[in-house]
Amino acid sequence: MVELFGHAVILYLRYRWKIGDLDNAFRKYAEMYVKIASREKGALIKLGQLASLRVDIFPDIVSETLAHLQDRVEPRPFSEVSDQLKHELGFGWRKLFGSFDKDAIAAASLGQVHRATLISGEEVAVKILYPGIEKTVWLDLACARCALWAFNFVTISDLRLVFLEIKTSILREMNYEIEADVAEEIAGNLSRDEKLAKKIKVPKIYRETSRTRILTMEFISGAPLREFVTSSQGSKESKSTVFWMVRAFLHQMFVDGLFHCDPHPGNLLIDSEQRIVLLDFGMNKRISDRLREGLRMNVWATMRRDSRAYAKSLEKAGMIGSKDLQAVQKVAEVMFDPEYFNLTPKEFAGLDFSRYLRRMRFELRKVNSFVLPDGVVMWFRSFSLLLTLGAELAPGMRPVEILAPHMAHYLAEEANRVT
Ligand SMILES: Nc1ncnc2c1ncn2[C@@H]1O[C@H](COP(=O)(O)OP(=O)(O)O)[C@@H](O)[C@H]1O
Ligand SMILES: [Mg+2]
Description:
About 55% of the residues lie in helices and about 10% in strands. It has about 425 residues and is an alpha+beta fold.
């Protein structure tokens, strides 16, 4: 930790005085971060992963290196799990569970999942928070704040706000009661759309065997999404999966204003009825109606490459003041340059963005007021993960194609609601 902080200070000084090969220095720092985070686990892994998505903030080399952080670690021994169960339940697991698999199904940065059966016979998946992880996470967050501070000087937006939103999210993720509440609320929201209800499944929560640090869910045997994709890439099934997955997430984002922020393949299964199973509601966000509406307008404006509407949507979302409408419109014009717009990941990887970025930076400098209302960071995370996943499932499909059928659907809905 001290190591991370010390290097951050050196990096900052080199940046300030432009000493040596900065790209190389940033890469080395990110590599060191990955090494230390993988060793120390806890919040550092989470923070690094979230940071890797902020390509708008960190130098490319940092995002690329951080993307290598894996959220899978060696499971803790069952004796620790059983102690934690006893601590949380107030008695040994045998009182409430018929059986408990000693080997974990999965182990991540904050907790691990075991398969078990209830006394009444139901098959369940039990997620157990690592004992003592809260303390480690608090410490990590305090230190990471110092370490990330170095990057605040190379960024356009306010890193402190970003950090605060991420920190709040990690702390909430350690309370499984919140996760249970959110899973049930989102399940209820999605079930209001009859068609979606047939295609999406959220595991039922068993409250009697759940606590703040234990979450008991219906066990779902399904194929991990990634496996399903490999076996059916480009097929009708995988296209239909993309359609319903995107619809389920846009429903959360644009209709309900409460959404799952972690749509990566590890959190999605396909069950025997070909339904998409949503797991892991630990990272979630509720946004205000104003922000929800602003972001919806923003996506709509982007799809139509309408730079005026784009600027208006950011004003609506509370991200810019009216004085900056003109300047943001200019930024959007650069953003919507057909040569760089609506690319597939393959095209994206093959393009040289240096000229584009120079133009963008030039226009961005003219924007005076830019704030990030609460929820934007998480929304952006969820939305970009969703599009990445969509492109992975249906290669060749462009972002606008992925979104188009749904945007019309939600705009029509909004019109119906108003009338
Ligand atoms: N209800 C469930 N049924 C079947 N497998 C599950 C269930 N919940 C979790 N898992 C398995 O455990 C893994 C980790 O669960 P998850 O809730 O994503 O935990 P984490 O917050 O640690 O990422 C999932 O990727 C999945 O393989
Ligand atoms: Mg997960």
